Amino acid sequence: MSILVTRSSMPDFEEYCEEIKKLWDSHWLTNMGVEHQQLQRELEAYLDSPHVVLYTNGHLALENVIAAMQFPKGGEVITTPFTFASTTHAIVRNGLTPVFCDVDPDTYTIDADKIEALITDRTVAIVPVHVYGNMCDVEAIDRIAKAHGLKVIYDAAHAFAVKYKGVSSVNFGDAAMFSFHATKVFNTIEGGAVCFPNDELVETLNDMKNFGIRGPERCVFVGGNAKMNEFQAAMGICNLRHLDAEIEKRKRVVERYRQHLGNVPGIKLCHPQKDVTPNYAYFPVVFDGFRATRDEVFARLGEQNITARKYFYPLTNSFECYADLPTAGVEKTPVAAYLADRVLTLPLYADLALEDVDRICDIILGE
Ligand SMILES: *Cc1c(COP(=O)(O)O)cnc(C)c1O
Questions:
Q1: Which atom of ligand 1 is found nearest the CA of 191?
Q2: Strand 76-79 and strand 123-127: pairing?
Q3: In the β-sheet with 175-179, what is the strand arrangement from edge to edge?
Q4: Distance of CA 120 to the CA centre of its chain
C-alpha cells in the first residue's frame, strides 16, 4: 500500500453535508456569506487575533498584505530562500527585491543575527517564515524591525495553532499569513488568511480581495479577486472542530518517529523549541554522515511506494526564474544550501498508523 507524504484532514462526509445544506437553501455560494462570516469569527477566537481576513489561498493573502503596506517599488525585503516558492514570488510580484538571509542551523528559520548586515537604505520589510512550524526568533526580529523602522510580515503558513510563551503565532510582527491548503495542518481545501492588529488594514485587504467594490454602486480601489467561497469556509468550520484532536494524533506519530530516529548517528532531527506549543506540522530529517544520503533514502522509500518530500529543495534563490536577480545564488546562504541538500520531510498526518511509521523507519535504517 502506498503512503503519501501527507493526507488531508477531512470531517465525516455527513458532517460536511450538514454544514453545506444551508447553501442549498440560500443559493448563496460566495461573496462573504454566512459560512465565511462564521469561519472568520471562529478563527479570530481560535487564533486570538484582532482581525482575520480570509482568502481563497495563502499565496494571494501574502501578496495582498505585502501590497497593502504600500512599499515604494524597488524596495528591498529581507527573507529566506528555505521556503516554498510562494514567499519569494509574493515579494517579487509586488515589484520588490528579495534579499536572502541565511537560516539558523537548528530551527531552519531566518538567522536573526544575520539580518542587520543586510539592511540598506532601501530595505522596507522583513518576511520571515516559521518553517515546519518552528517559530522564528520573534523577539530578536521585533527588536531589529523597531530599531530600523521596518515592517514584519510573517509567512506563518506552517504555524497554524503554534504558540510562543502561550501567545498565538499571529501576534508577532505587523501581520501573519496562513495557508489553509489541503496539505496544511488546518485546511479549507484551498484557502488562506491574513491576521493583524491594525484596524485600518481590514478595509484595504477586503478591497484588495473583492475588486475594491464597496456596495452596488461604489468601486473605490483597483482590487483583484481572492475571496474564499462558502464551500471552502464550510470545510474550515468542520475541520476546526476537530483540529485539536488531529494535532494530538499528529503528536503520537511524531513521538514514534523520534523513538526510532532520535539517536541514530548521521540523522539530525529538529529539537522541540523552548516555550513553543507545537502543531506537529512536519517531520524533517537531516541526513549528514548517515550510511545513506538523503537522495538514496528518498529513492529507497520511493521503491516501497512511500513518498517523502525534499522540502525545501531547491532553494528559491536558485530558481531559474530568479537567475537575473542580483541577490540570487545559493552560495550566499550556505546553511540553507546545506539543509536543502540533506533534508527530507517524512510522511506525517493524523491518521498515519504507528505501524506504518515503524515500517518507514525500518526502511530508512535499512533493517
Ligand atoms: C503552502 C505555503 C504557502 C502558500 O499557500 P497556498 O495556500 O498554497 O497558496 C506559502 N508559504 C509557505 C511556506 C507554504 O508552505
A1: 7
A2: parallel
A3: 51-55, 192-196, 175-179, 151-155, 123-127, 76-79, 97-100
A4: 27
Nearest ligand 1 atom to the CA of 90 is: 10
For residue 283, what is its C-alpha cell? 517531520
Contact 269, 262 (CB under 8 A): yes
Phi first, then psi, for residue 79 (nearest 5°) are -150, -175
CA of 295 to the centre of ligand 1 (A): 24
pLDDT in tens, 148-188: 999 999 999 999 999 999 999 999 999 999 999 999 999 99
Domains of the chain (ranges; CATH) run 13-238 (3.40.640.10), 243-365 (3.90.1150.10)
Q: Whose CA is nearest to atom 14 of ligand 1?
A: 157
Q: What ranges make up the beta strands (E) of the chain?
A: 51-55, 76-79, 97-100, 123-127, 151-155, 163-164, 167-168, 175-179, 192-196, 267-269, 276-277, 283-287, 343-346
Residue 40 backbone zone (phi > 0: left; psi -120 to 50: alpha; other: beta): alpha
Grid cell 523549541 in the structure block, residue = 273
**DSSP 3-state of 316:** helix
CB-ligand 1 contact for 130 (6 Å cutoff): no
Q: How far apart are CA 317 and CA 83, in angstroms?
A: 10
Fill in the amino acid letter for 122.
R
For residue 312, cis peptide bond before it (omega within 30 degrees of 0): yes
Question: Each residue of 187-243: pLDDT tens digit?
Answer: 999 999 999 999 999 999 999 999 999 999 999 999 999 999 999 999 999 999 999
- Give the burial class of 15: count Cβ atoms within 10 A of its Cβ; 0-12 exposed, 13-18 middle, 19 or more buried: middle
Amino acid at 173: G
Encode 110-129: b = buried (16+ Cβ within 10 Å), e = exposed: bbbebbeebbeeebbbbbbb
What is the identity of the amino acid at 34?
A: V
Q: How far apart are CA 338 and CA 28, in angstroms?
A: 50
